[in-house]
Amino acid sequence: MQKNEIYTVICEDITSQGYGVVHLDSMAVFVFGLLPKEKAKIRIVKVLSRYAFGKIEERYTSSCDRLEPACPAFGKCGGCAFLHLDYLASLKVKQNAVQTLFDRAHLPIQVEFPLSVQDPYAYRNKAQFPVQVRNGKVQMGFYRPHSHDVIDCPECKIQSDAINHVYQAIRQKLRPQEAATLRHVLIRSNQKNEIQIVWIGTENRFQTLTQDLCKADPQIVSVVFNENVRKDNVILGESYEVLYGTDYLVQECMGLQMDVHFKSFYQVNPVMMEILYQTAMDLAKLQDFMHVVDLYSGTGTISCLVSQHVQSVIGVEIVEEACQDAKRNALRNHLHNVEFVCEDAGIYAKKHAQKTDVLFVDPPRKGLCEEATDHIQDFDPDKIIYISCNPNTLVRDAKRFQEAGYDCQKVQPVDMFCQTAGLECVSLFVKR
Ligand SMILES: C[S@@+](CC[C@H](N)C(=O)[O-])C[C@H]1O[C@@H](n2cnc3c(N)ncnc32)[C@H](O)[C@@H]1O
C-alpha cells in the first residue's frame, strides 16, 4: 500500500477514538469520521508497518447513526471523536472498547453500559487553550491532532457557556504583544458560572488585560499568572502570581463546598462527577464502623463525601496545593474524621499501610504505580473501589489485583468526557 492511493471501501467497525476501520491487503486502515457499514472513496494518507491511515474523499452512503457535527472544527481540532455519531451509539462504542480490553486480558466481567447525561454538550468546567502568534495575528483554540499547530476556534461545543463567553472576550482583547509571551490560557468555571483565568507563559504582561476583563465581567473571580519557561509539554509551571481575587475557585459537589486551587485536579464534568461518586459509594456499601483510605485524593472530594458515612478516612495526595485544598475543604465542611497526607501513594502504601475496610483509588491516566499495587495486600481491604480515566491501565491493574487475591465484580463506565474518546470507569474488586 502506498500513500495517496485511492480505494473504495465499506467500513467494518469503529474504534474508541472515532476512526472507522477497513481492511485492505490484510492491513487495517483507520479513517477518521467513517462509520460502520458506510461506503466511501478514501485516500491513503499515512502508511506504517502494521497499519495505515486514510481520509474520506467522498462518502457514498450514510449510516442511520450519522449526525451533522455540531462544530465546524470537528475532525481538525483533536478534541471530539464522536460529534458525527448518535450519542447512544457512541456510548455503545465506548462500552465495547472496554469490554474488548477485559476480554483480551481474560478477566471474566460483563462491562456495564455507560451511565450518561441527557445533554452531552456544554458540560466542561475546564479548558486549556494553546496560544500562538502567526503572521502577526493571535491564534487561540486547540492543537491539531498529533501536532502543535493551533486550530483557531471561536468556541467549543463541549465547554460550559461561561467558559465560551470569557474565552470570546479574551480572543477579542488579547493583542499580539501580550500573546507573544503566552503558551496557554486555562479557564475554569463553577456551577455559579464564576470564572478563573490562568495566563500561562514566560512573562507577565497581563495586568492591564486582567483589569479590563474583570471590569467588564463580574463573574471573573480569580486571575493568576503562572510562569512556565519549561521546554517540554507540561502545561503548568511552578511559580505564580495572583492578579485578581484568589488562586482557587469554589466548586460544589453533592452539597459540599470545595476550594480547588488552579494547580489541583477536579473532575471536568460536574453532573457526571456526582453520578460517578454516588456509584462509587454505592458499590462500597459504606457503614459507620468502617476505616477507609483514599489514594490519589486530590482536593479531597471523595474522602470528604465518604467521611460522612464511615468512621475514618485518610486521603493521600502528592500535589501539595491539592492536599492543602483538601485539608481546608474538610474544615470548611465540618468533617473531623478525615485527614490528608501529602505523599506519593506508592510510598504511603509501602510505609504506612494498615488494615482498611474499603480502599478507594483514583489514579491519573498512568494508573497505579507498581509500589501501590505491590502493597495493596498490606491494607488488607475487603473491597477496592477503583476509579479510572484510562481503561488500558485499569485492565492492567485489574490483572495485578486478581493475582493479589481480588476479583473484579463490576465495571461501570461513566461518560465523564462526552463526545470525546475519553471514558471514566468505576470498578469494584472484592477479596476472594
Ligand atoms: C484523577 S485525579 C483524582 C483526584 C480526586 N480523587 C478527585 O476525585 O478529585 C488523580 C490525583 O492523583 C494525584 N497523584 C498523581 N500521582 C500521584 C502519586 N504518585 N501519589 C499520590 N497522588 C498522586 C494527582 O495530583 C491527582 O490529584
UniProtKB/TrEMBL annotation:
Alphabetical keyword list: Methyltransferase, S-adenosyl-L-methionine, Transferase
PROSITE patterns: SAM_MT_RNA_M5U, TRAM, TRMA_1
Listed EC numbers: 2.1.1.190
Pfam families in the record: TRAM, tRNA_U5-meth_tr
Annotated active site: 389
GO biological process, one term: methylation
GO molecular function, one term: methyltransferase activity
InterPro entries reported in the protein's UniProt record: MeTrfase_TrmA_AS, NA-bd_OB-fold, SAM-dependent_MTases_sf, TRAM_dom, U5_MeTrfase_fam
Record flagged with keyword Methyltransferase: yes
UniProt-recorded name of the protein: 23S rRNA (Uracil(1939)-C(5))-methyltransferase RlmD
Native source species: Faecalicoccus acidiformans
